[in-house]
Hints:
Six copies of one chain form a homohexamer. In chain A, 33% of the residues lie in helices and 19% in strands. By secondary structure, chain A is an alpha/beta fold. Chain A has a single domain, classed as 3-Layer(aba) Sandwich (Rossmann fold). In chain A, strands 1-2-3-5-4-6-7-8-9 form a nine-stranded mixed sheet, with helices on both faces. The longest helix of chain A is centred in the middle third of the chain and has 17 residues, at 155-171. Chain A starts with 7 loop residues before the first helix and ends in a 6-residue tail after the last helix. The model of chain A has no long low-confidence stretch (mean pLDDT 97). Chains in contact: A-B, A-C, A-D, A-F, B-C, B-D, B-E, C-E, C-F, D-E, D-F, E-F. The interface between A and B is medium-sized, with 33 and 33 residues.
Amino acid sequence: MALSDLSLEDLEKLDLTLHEPAGLDEFWARTLSAADAHPLDVHREPVVTHLTTLRHEDLSFAGYDGHRINAWLVLPAGAEGPLPAVVEFVGYGGGRGLPQDRLTWASAGYAHLVVDTRGQGAAWGSGGATADPVGYDVSTPGFMTRGILDKDTYYYRRVFTDAVRAVRAARSLPEVRADAVCVAGASQGGAIALAAASLSPDVRAVMADVPFLSWFRRALQITAVEPYTEVVRYLSVHRDHVERVLDTLDHFDVAHLVPRATAPALISLALMDRVCPPSTVWAAYRRYGGPAELSVHPFNDHEGGQTHQWRRQLEWLSALLTAPGASA
Amino acid sequence: MALSDLSLEDLEKLDLTLHEPAGLDEFWARTLSAADAHPLDVHREPVVTHLTTLRHEDLSFAGYDGHRINAWLVLPAGAEGPLPAVVEFVGYGGGRGLPQDRLTWASAGYAHLVVDTRGQGAAWGSGGATADPVGYDVSTPGFMTRGILDKDTYYYRRVFTDAVRAVRAARSLPEVRADAVCVAGASQGGAIALAAASLSPDVRAVMADVPFLSWFRRALQITAVEPYTEVVRYLSVHRDHVERVLDTLDHFDVAHLVPRATAPALISLALMDRVCPPSTVWAAYRRYGGPAELSVHPFNDHEGGQTHQWRRQLEWLSALLTAPGASA
Amino acid sequence: MALSDLSLEDLEKLDLTLHEPAGLDEFWARTLSAADAHPLDVHREPVVTHLTTLRHEDLSFAGYDGHRINAWLVLPAGAEGPLPAVVEFVGYGGGRGLPQDRLTWASAGYAHLVVDTRGQGAAWGSGGATADPVGYDVSTPGFMTRGILDKDTYYYRRVFTDAVRAVRAARSLPEVRADAVCVAGASQGGAIALAAASLSPDVRAVMADVPFLSWFRRALQITAVEPYTEVVRYLSVHRDHVERVLDTLDHFDVAHLVPRATAPALISLALMDRVCPPSTVWAAYRRYGGPAELSVHPFNDHEGGQTHQWRRQLEWLSALLTAPGASA
Amino acid sequence: MALSDLSLEDLEKLDLTLHEPAGLDEFWARTLSAADAHPLDVHREPVVTHLTTLRHEDLSFAGYDGHRINAWLVLPAGAEGPLPAVVEFVGYGGGRGLPQDRLTWASAGYAHLVVDTRGQGAAWGSGGATADPVGYDVSTPGFMTRGILDKDTYYYRRVFTDAVRAVRAARSLPEVRADAVCVAGASQGGAIALAAASLSPDVRAVMADVPFLSWFRRALQITAVEPYTEVVRYLSVHRDHVERVLDTLDHFDVAHLVPRATAPALISLALMDRVCPPSTVWAAYRRYGGPAELSVHPFNDHEGGQTHQWRRQLEWLSALLTAPGASA
Amino acid sequence: MALSDLSLEDLEKLDLTLHEPAGLDEFWARTLSAADAHPLDVHREPVVTHLTTLRHEDLSFAGYDGHRINAWLVLPAGAEGPLPAVVEFVGYGGGRGLPQDRLTWASAGYAHLVVDTRGQGAAWGSGGATADPVGYDVSTPGFMTRGILDKDTYYYRRVFTDAVRAVRAARSLPEVRADAVCVAGASQGGAIALAAASLSPDVRAVMADVPFLSWFRRALQITAVEPYTEVVRYLSVHRDHVERVLDTLDHFDVAHLVPRATAPALISLALMDRVCPPSTVWAAYRRYGGPAELSVHPFNDHEGGQTHQWRRQLEWLSALLTAPGASA
Amino acid sequence: MALSDLSLEDLEKLDLTLHEPAGLDEFWARTLSAADAHPLDVHREPVVTHLTTLRHEDLSFAGYDGHRINAWLVLPAGAEGPLPAVVEFVGYGGGRGLPQDRLTWASAGYAHLVVDTRGQGAAWGSGGATADPVGYDVSTPGFMTRGILDKDTYYYRRVFTDAVRAVRAARSLPEVRADAVCVAGASQGGAIALAAASLSPDVRAVMADVPFLSWFRRALQITAVEPYTEVVRYLSVHRDHVERVLDTLDHFDVAHLVPRATAPALISLALMDRVCPPSTVWAAYRRYGGPAELSVHPFNDHEGGQTHQWRRQLEWLSALLTAPGASA
């Protein structure tokens, strides 16, 4: 294992002029307002887990185009709410899994909403439960190139919209403090969290570990392992569509979206990360619109900070929410 | 490179009692009759290729549920028809490509129809052009597990139906001898060709090289490389769905379908094939309903016989079509 | 991914005559009675974790030769004891990690003791905290060959003794029901759990997932990946020491020890496990002395059943402990 | 897959001062004039192929030192000549294959001569048919280091001379327009085409895809995959022969030869090419003596542009040959 | 690392009926008698090595067709002869190297002749010095398929003849006891040693470690790594030449030749050998014509016994040569 | 194989300001003076080897903390002493092996002492014989991280001290010229030799091939293969200990120690070395305190110069020891 990209010193010097597309705000305004046509329609059902300190519910809501998105809601067993909440998004290929997979934030006293990524969940872990009920044009195996020839049909248009709706769903719960809904995730989950924070004014804080989907134009050139390579493979076949594909990606590039975010952020980066190279994460961190802190893991690959990072998040979030004026 | 499975001697001794599901015929009868509700609606458009000995058309027809399936029709430039025809299906991840990719059968005097596999085409070659306009439940990256929890929603239900419709479309062309429409393909293309021959009474001959999608229950246990492993990966996550998934696959297992075929077949098998292990191909060959010949490539991996095999096909098909009584 | 060893049908037919060494009982009686010379000397210290539903303590006790062994004790925050307990051992190369790594059994109402494996913890996860204060003869990188030329100096002599002492430490805690101390673990952790159950009369139940260290003589011949290969590498250099090394291993082979166990066991096995091949796990299951159940994961590698298996364990253990006469 | 070398921007800035050896022109003049001592002695024999739109001949001619070099001549079946011609050279390890492998240029109305590379053909494809009847000093497995200690004995001295003779043989055919003989090839074939265009005044156009054998001194340092590595492996053993080997290679370096070429050229380069790194191809393009166009494939490895590139070649060559004054 | 083939128990049961070709003896008689037409023509020249206990000479002799074959002759510095001698052949891709590479047998009091393998030497080690001045038909990179379409042109016909001549050269040296010339080698070197012992009546003893070139028909089917795979690759391309190639190989199969040998043999075999699988070595051992001993290395790959084996050879050979009547 | 790091031109420009720790001299003075408390206590025992030109002894001495360190002493059989001596250290994972492994320097007239590295010897070769009788804190598999949290407990503190003692032991032998004791080794052995030359005033010359353990802070960032990666893996788990670990390593960094050396040095470096990247070796060479020569192997990986380099060492050392005033 060696540095996968630039050293920290070289990151500092990196030119971060990116390729933000002209109608980015309009595109997302149009997208989200179309989603508003569908009521949230939150369903909740208790789940038997054999656990005693936590209680789980199978929660779903209407996401993009009203499609049903599934999640687990986890609460401390005897908690008197309303509680601050963490809405968590999942890494590439994973799903919300089994309820017993998700013990973390609720064990720390938060309401925890673990949201499926549509269509994903069958690559690792304990599975997903949310269909992607939309067909697509020709794609490379994986999710990265579904509908990639047009920003209106791109897979992540649906996913990011689902995420904004998940925040809204969390805010609607009686057990949750609507002014303390945070978003979190690692890798793809971190990217979705950053997107949600950029597109939702109501997010209280964002914790994004080794986020994916950032600075696509650079990532495609320097990343030799999956899943950025799905797009490279697509373009190695569809040699005529390079500009069209890059234009689509520009509208979903987290490094383009984050200047719009305002909530405090804790971002982590691993200097030996071969999946989400440090420079791409760095761009998201440096261009982030709100106050941002960075955790650097100098000797880690894409596994990043794992529980070390969660420990830091527990402290950071607790301090944030209990700071003077925090609940204002 | 070494034998990937059994030697030829051990193949001969292999027990080929398979797991054909009860309602197989009914399922396909129902599926194909539902497809009949849609007219074929063949569209044709000439294509400029800078070639002089061949002419190409961009041909499409209505496949499963009326979805538009694209193909290239290639004809010898000055041919006076009607000609015998070869309908070719493509290997996993590939598409019909560019017109200039397809010079073979028409150069030998056949009408040649190269049919896209819906949603595929962006993994290798020159691309595909046919969307798969249907959403799916959670799946592993790739096409193998799309809709796999139910035979009615499984991806290959659509693909095999498209293939039957492609044969029908070929038979409808004025340049084609309706009594001499053959099917061909390698790997996934060979499996689709065998399925088409099993489900269409009208196929004149089938040429299937190192066919995929055969004897799933064995293939999943002995194959260590993609794409059978997509299903294994799915089941490694969705540990509770083993029986449901195997039941779905049983309805699309080429080794279950081929006893229904009657057209003469030329099948090839490679003894060092790691992608489609010899025993799985052997099962399709031995259980095939019509007269079948086998080409064995003892020292090849999944590339099989390549042009050596095509040369044999050229001779075999020519002999078949010119045999006394061949056009009866 | 394919079957890594025998199919379930072939496992059933496998000859399980093993190579149990003559003085096995005497060796362990001598070893454990020497350990008895050291008082348990349990130390406990509360840990701040920012968690609310659980409380953690940093617990240590005197293991082999009085060496200090560290563990986390995790308890449901407001639990009124005494509680049934699960003593968990860790997989090869891992350590007890951070307190926040360990939320499982206590969230289900158990006292949970997560025990370090001496010297290990720096290969994955969040780290270990227990030294192995003993020097060794020449060894291959790793822990498998430390002191391997003599059963008296072998590394796992210390580790298994530490485990027996861990059970004893758990039984001594006022929060714990001494008649309901169970052991658990996966891979190396599963092997240690089986060893503890075989060497401690007081274990109430054992849950061992894809256990390691079983049927060494076969494992060394059929396993191509780490860590069994550490021993192979050792023997590829020290070609003269084969018999000596195998004799040592015979004294630590879980398949030799388990006939002595009597507590109910739930064991899991994965048919595509390349690290701990199914036949080696099967031997431990079939030779187990008490009532044993087996979970088979047909499409998994060494990750085995993960949370699916834990869910089954939660149900199995709950049923076991609440069965009529369970506390007798 | 990532950039394998420099980005396009950095290629533009690259210093292309190379290491052209002193007597390069004299060496090749001497070599080719020695070859002139042998009459071309073209043999032709019809081949049965079962194809109807094309006819194939087994053609051979006397190459270096009069050695017999085999080729396929492919013609549109009913063509009235004389036709423009494409002489094609083959990639490393391949041969002319079977006649049925070669349908491309003749289907577009050209006379097509596919020339074997002596001794090669048994690494992929359908085989070669031309011996290399010359012994060599010690070499690394492969063809790259045969006779490498002296420019007079080096393998490619024979191969490049064979290529010049192949152009001459094509020009001698009655079906061919002697003023419209072009050369083409990919990888090694592209390098041989460039060499032929540099050493033959009579070439009408050259089409070289991802050409090999260019800027050896740089390629040996930056290429980690075969076949440039054959030379590296040779030098890792014969540590004393570095200067001697580099001197030999300097005489066969396509980047040294191409300033002598004058025919229009269409060259392609792939930015993720690990076999023939972009900078080495770039050097051949930039130093090319005649008018040169470049196709860049930004997301391809050594497969380059494949049929996309052929489509471009069809258009480019057609425009070139039909331009006003083209036949002058 | 795991067993690469059969266990020792299963080797014992293996059917060793092989495919010895009809005219094998005639072929070799004819080959060797043709070689007899050339005088041995031994040249010797002292070499400066900076060593004090040994002295080296650069020795060459006329091999197949009179081609010059180079060797090192190493002698104990002050030895009073004549000495028993060991003629050593080298593993695939290696050469005699530098004189300083060869200190073993002469340090034990033997005359040591290290013989180059024609054309080889540039793949590892310190190099070779012997050309293979013969051209060949199409071949796969490497030496295994040179001239493979005919037993008369096959590469190893030359190599084995060179080896018989090397024994003769050693016997002709005044420093050497002509009745005590032994042959030795590992891998390819072991195969050549066995061939020399089978084809030369004058060999006193043979020491062959993990010999190559034995039981080709089986080796090609079960070996997944180089260099047996060179032949597989050849046949994967030249699919029509399988029988012709196997017939050629039958004439050079060490397992076919060894029944003719009579000198005592010490052979070694490694049960995890992936290059020369145990069953192929076993065949050579079991079919050996003279008295044969076997060293088994149960946990080694193709490195076999290395110095452990040499130590055994030193003892075995010393005992053999000093046995009562040994010099008769 | 490609350049693994910088080219020779770029090495010349590299900034070699390193991170030498404050109390380095004091640390080593304290360490070595503590070792002085133990008498050398050299034991010698003849070994039977069946060799005639050399005689071997099994020699041991008291190393760090009086621990017994084993070595082979090899002498020319009939040599009249006292002789110059070479003390050789071994590469990572290897041991002194069998006596028959070690024929080199004694065959050139030197007394040769081959010293075990404590605890190592079971990863390759013929084995080691020296225990490391010290326990350690948690470590990653391998030797690199044993005791790494504190310079006082670090593994290489013991190893370097053993090496200084080995030089002293060699100087004490009656067969050895005390003013002509040299040190040598490759990789880890080269690093230990450089450390010994830096910490012992009495070394006459040092020959270090592709030395390891140099410029750790850079090596950890740019090396992707073992064994530097053991430290990276440790730090990927123990994320909190980065500074502590780097501080430890600073005290054993050969590039920090060598400015203290004064004996003439011959160092080699391979430009394609992936294990010990050229820049790290370069730092040791450039910062070396005495007169230093560099051998560069431009096309070699970590195997470096092998016998080519030994030939150069034979000449270099002979010239050094016979230079006018050499024995002064």
